[in-house]
Write a structure and sequence with these properties.
8 strands, 174 residues, alpha/beta, 4 helices, four-stranded mixed sheet, 23% strand, Rossmann fold, single chain
Length: 174
């Protein structure tokens, strides 16, 4: 599921056509940058799946484009569609003392210097281009929505870290 229709169409043609156990769906959710004509506001979006449908959920490069209220809604929906004992692998740009220091020193590849609604963004004109979420705020949103974080958090290279597993920060929820 993605809000970028052209990407979904590509995946349907190039992946689902060859591997029938994969399916791709366009979610017509508003985003000022990739989907400005979207019909559903992101903070009101309900995933089009039944409760407790999935054993595993992947949320890659999604929280990196969502403002705080939308993160809360997506966490609620993730919790709703996960079966008991299920896991979710999610990526984010988590803001903590280390990442903020690296951003301030100019080592980050993403300049999350604009404060906006409990998060930091690259471009206040198009805030969802890249969004950093305060780590403690993200953990609080997880607790409020009934999702636990399975340690450790694997911090990414995005902010200029020298030791990392991936570009974005990786969290496992369950």
């Amino acid at each position: 599921m993605d809000i970028v229709k052209v990407g979904v169409e590509w995946a349907q043609r190039n992946i689902a056509s060859r591997f029938p156990n994969f399916s791709f769906m366009h979610a017509d959710v508003y985003n000022k940058h990739p989907n400005p004509k979207g019909k559903v506001l992101p903070e009101q979006f309900s995933f089009p799946f039944p409760d407790r449908e999935f054993d595993f959920v992947i949320v890659k490069s999604v929280f990196t484009h969502l403002l705080s209220e939308t993160v809360r809604q997506y966490l609620r929906e993730i919790r709703r569609v996960m079966r008991p004992g299920a896991r979710c692998l999610a990526t984010a740009f988590l803001l903590n003392q280390e990442s903020l220091q690296l951003i301030s020193s100019g080592r980050s590849s993403i300049d999350l210097s604009h404060n906006m609604g409990g998060c930091r963004v690259v471009d206040p004109e198009f805030p969802e281009t890249a969004v950093g979420i305060p780590e403690d705020g993200f953990l609080q949103l997880c607790r409020q929505t009934g999702i636990s974080i399975r340690p450790p958090i694997h911090y990414g290279e995005w902010c200029g870290r020298e030791q990392f597993l991936s570009y974005q920060d990786i969290v496992v929820l369950g």
